[in-house]
Amino acid sequence: MKRYWKNNRLILAAALVLSVISSALTAGISVLLREVVDAAAAKQAAVFGKLCIFTVIYILLICGTSFFSSVTAKFLTGRIIREYRRDVFRGIMGRRPSRYYQENTADYISALTNDMKLIEENYIIALLNSFELIVMLAATLVILVLLSPLVTALLMATFLLMLLIPSLIGRYLEKRQTQVSRQMAVFTEKLKDLLSGYEILKSYSRTEDANDCFQIENETETRVKFRAARLFALNEGISDTLSVLSVAVVLFTSAWLVLIGRISTGTLLALVQLSSTFTAPIIMLMQNLPKVRSVKSVIARLNDYADSGEAEQAGQGIPTFEHEVELKHISFSYDENTPVLSDVSMRFEKGKKYAVMGPSGCGKSTLLKLMTGCFEGYGGSILYDGRELNTLNPDRIAGIASLIHQNVYLFNWSVRENILLHEDFSVQELEEAVKKSGVSGFLSEKENGLDYMAGENGSLLSGGQRQRIALARALIRRTPLVILDEGTSALDRETAHEIESRLLEDEEITLITITHNPDPELITRYDRVYQMGMG
Ligand SMILES: Nc1ncnc2c1ncn2[C@@H]1O[C@H](COP(=O)(O)OP(=O)(O)OP(=O)(O)O)[C@@H](O)[C@H]1O
């Protein structure tokens, strides 16, 4: 987190200076109060008049500095959160797939929304606030000592007592806040799951069950939040009591000092006023410091996200595919107990066409994901032109191989942007990809053609249309290696045949097709068919 304060040091400096001025001016009101009361008591009308004008100017000054101090603090908070969120998002996106899928997308969403809000409120704002309060406390202390050392000593005693509380409660609050953050992630995850499954729940008449499911999470979240809030309330209750106590101590001591003629009525009023500008910041500090402490673990988790992208870059070599990709004696398992692949070897030569077949669950997709650098930790070797994949930069594999998954993801963008993914391609390249992938076959039905919006995860398109867009997305990039993982399974036989046939004709691409139902006419055109078995 320190780096974000550093990155914005000029704005931070401005916010701190403004907050020092604003706090000192607020503390100074008590002196003004004493002068006004004493002038009135001594019936000094001329002095009283001057003090009235001075007070108006003084109040305007407080208003101005307090406004600018607050605006600067908010600006600073916004910038820090913006930069932090950017880094956390980058870190998440930079994760290798194997690590990315260890957590649920809802965890990431919760980190970037709920947790960021916690950090904004309970850390950044609380810290800036605490600084202002400390300055106000220091300014008040100086004035207090000058007015009455005895009252100052009594206030200091209650101050020490007040400081003791947050340090006792803070540890428990941190634990509770971590529970809240975790529960919010679970809540987001369940919510996302239920809303994504809307269609299934409706068609099986399970919406009532979904309501119950939601209600359970809703209640759990409320309970966990309330447990944390209860502890915050205890903290606030104790500090409020101590504050009332300290005001009473100051009032009675000052009144006694007036009785014995040691101070004036104006000083009494100033002392009472000062006691509240002394205790109010302490109460707020007591409430702020545990808050700051409570989000420590949340910050640690987000830092882990932010740093994970950089830490996970494996090899730095640039992969090439001039001759072949070879998989030698590959073995792999997602967990230690269930091997998915054992001793699988395949060789893919540039420009040739390959089909990979085998029973469902035998590891065909896993093998090709390994080949494109999605997972590490495999046995054997994957060689791009003789160079081991582990020594190569996995991000650069995308420039060589396009993997068209069985489950296509479409953004809620136009068909055009779903193909381009905001990358620059010429009109001719786009037209060619649209034709080759079969997208052109359904575009004529859509009023606005390529500008047709796909909807949330392509909900406004059919499964086959989605697959064709995914194919166009890969073909426009003209990667030398195209891997179709059941990439035409949602298409009618005729369209699938047409597309596959076009891909087989293209001499520039090396095609690897994973298929359960090979087209009998086309399978003979493959250079080699690899048959995989279970385990
Ligand atoms: N991310 C994952 N984490 C854990 N296990 C996984 C993961 N992905 C796949 N598996 C498991 O690995 C095994 C192989 O899956 P894979 O998808 O590679 O098979 P497949 O041959 O492509 O199957 P299909 O033909 O049905 O698509 C399956 O038992 C599957 O449950």
Automatic annotation (TrEMBL):
Residues 325-535 form the ABC transporter domain. SUPFAM superfamilies: ABC transporter transmembrane region (SSF90123), P-loop containing nucleoside triphosphate hydrolases (SSF52540). InterPro entries: AAA+_ATPase (IPR003593), ABC1_TM_dom (IPR011527), ABC1_TM_sf (IPR036640), ABC_transporter-like_ATP-bd (IPR003439), ABC_transporter-like_CS (IPR017871), P-loop_NTPase (IPR027417), Type_1_exporter (IPR039421). GO terms for cellular component: plasma membrane. It comes from the Bacteria. The chain crosses the membrane at residues 55-76, 123-147, 153-173, 242-261. Pfam families: ABC_membrane, ABC_tran. It is found in: Cell membrane. PROSITE patterns: ABC_TM1F, ABC_TRANSPORTER_1, ABC_TRANSPORTER_2. Its main location: membrane. It is a multi-pass membrane protein. The keyword tRNA processing does not apply. Keywords: ATP-binding, Membrane, Nucleotide-binding, Transmembrane, Transmembrane helix. Residues 13-294 form the ABC transmembrane type-1 domain. GO terms for molecular function: ABC-type oligopeptide transporter activity; ATP binding; ATP hydrolysis activity. PANTHER family: ATP-BINDING CASSETTE SUB-FAMILY B MEMBER 10, MITOCHONDRIAL (PTHR43394:SF1), ATP-DEPENDENT PERMEASE MDL1, MITOCHONDRIAL (PTHR43394). This is ABC transporter ATP-binding protein. It comes from Schaedlerella arabinosiphila. The lineage of its organism: Bacteria, Bacillati, Bacillota, Clostridia, Lachnospirales.
